[in-house]
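Late entry, nicotinamide-adenine-dinucleotide complex.
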Amino acid sequence: MKQIIVGLGERSYPIWIGERILASIGSALNDVAFPKKVAIVTNPTVGELYCDQIVDSLVASGRQVSVIRVPDGEEYKTIDTLENIYDVLIERKFDRYCGLIALGGGVIGDMAGFAAATFLRGIPFVQIPTTLLSQVDSSVGGKTGVNHPQGKNLIGAFYQPKHVHIDVMALETLPKREYVSGLAEVIKYGIIRDVEFFRWLEDHRELLADRSTDALAYAVMISCQIKANVVENDEKEQGVRVILNLGHTFGHAVETLAGYGVIKHGEAVSIGMVMAAQVSARLNLCSAEDVKRIIDLLTYFDLPVTPPDFSVTDYLSVMQRDKKVKDGVLRLVLNHGIGSAELHQVESLDECLGELLI
Ligand code: NAD
Ligand code: GLY
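Prediction complete; structure with ligand written out below:
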């Protein structure tokens, strides 16, 4: 078992990463003096697979445990579902000295985290992420929230967990499309921060495709370490944290235009990272060889690299609603070679996209 500390002063917390560590959640929570009365928020899919071992460990550590099941799916990451969570907490007399535990992927983690941030103005919470995407990205860093009919994650709060508990064995039951979607975010970390890690991913691609436990534990650990480091330097996304959004501006446009759920988040990020790399190459920020390496690695895992066929006008109009737009000006995270990235205002982006989308 490996441990990473996200160093945020009084909001610091440990991330445990290991194999078959779900049963040690009780002792992990004792280490951070987590409350004795807790509710697990999960969905039927993940609950069926992993809830019993979590409940057993929590009960063995002297905790009183409730389970709140919400429906599975991004379409349920809403204020309505949140209200159902509050209803149960109120009905079961949860007070400020109780805690919430998110057991599931990014949808559960974001929603349970926001419930914890807002119930009684904030109660402690813990993340037990069970998808690759949530293990390397959404469970770390404290972004929580729900969707609004007008857009994804429009309602939310920065609220850090007390502990993140990552068991890579949980990834064995993940459907392939969900798994490779998470790999896109893993590859993102190599592109934005660590060329050595990118090379390691190239060298270990077969093991990763086979979900080798050792390879996965290493890839998750380096990803979390990079994310922790970025978040420690910029918790509320006023500066460097924006690089975590490589490929996301174009990726969100792909998700929106295709219709939510048709193209998965990681698949859209894969397409977006290739677009970003191609724009970078045009601006001489990276070489054609860098672009090829990125495309080759994503393609190896069967991730899509070609944008769906929408017009430049459609893409640009959705991209204008990106959270990085400032004073009406669209800015993109672009890679500098492999291993570094920065936010750029791109002149004549319409022409550039026009040429790339042909
Ligand atoms: P998800 O939570 O919808 O999980 C995908 C599917 O896998 C679901 O059907 C789920 O029930 C199932 N599942 C989860 N774990 C499983 C397991 N071990 N075995 C079998 N099935 C399992 O999707 P996701 O990709 O984990 O998360 C996407 C969400 O994360 C989006 O809402 C996105 O906005 C959010 N997100 C948040 C952040 C952040 O920083 N907070 C970052 C990235 C993404
Ligand atoms: N997923 C981007 C971030 O946490 O900032």
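Residues 268 and 354 are 19 Å apart (CA to CA). Will revisit in the morning.
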